[in-house]
Specification:
about 90 residues, mainly alpha
């Protein structure tokens, strides 16, 4: 029998959302290894942030608690995004 919190007739499955988060995190980790291309890394971080936000939103929609690690990862990625943007909302060049 499957965990009832994983499936929902209205929204996406939590395990599918977590798979997306893990794939995005692996992409970011891979891009950080070796020589870093800032543009590719920024794009991968945006994908990761979108995946984290989707997962968190689905937890909220289901009235489930947000794990501290997820909250921390969201804050980290949001902080990185805001530090990469200027006051005008455009990306800084490195």
């Amino acid at each position: 029998m499957t965990d009832p919190s994983l499936a929902s007739p209205v929204g996406p499955r939590l395990d599918q959302l977590m798979t997306t988060v893990r794939a995005a995190q692996l992409e970011v980790d891979g891009l950080r290894a070796g020589r870093v291309d800032p543009m590719l890394l920024d794009g991968a971080r945006e994908v990761l942030l979108d995946a984290l936000e989707s997962y968190a939103a689905e937890l909220v929609r289901r009235r489930l608690p947000t794990p501290p690690g997820l909250r921390d990862a969201l804050r980290l990625q949001q902080g990185i995004r805001s530090s990469n943007r200027g006051a005008d909302g455009r990306r800084h060049r490195r």
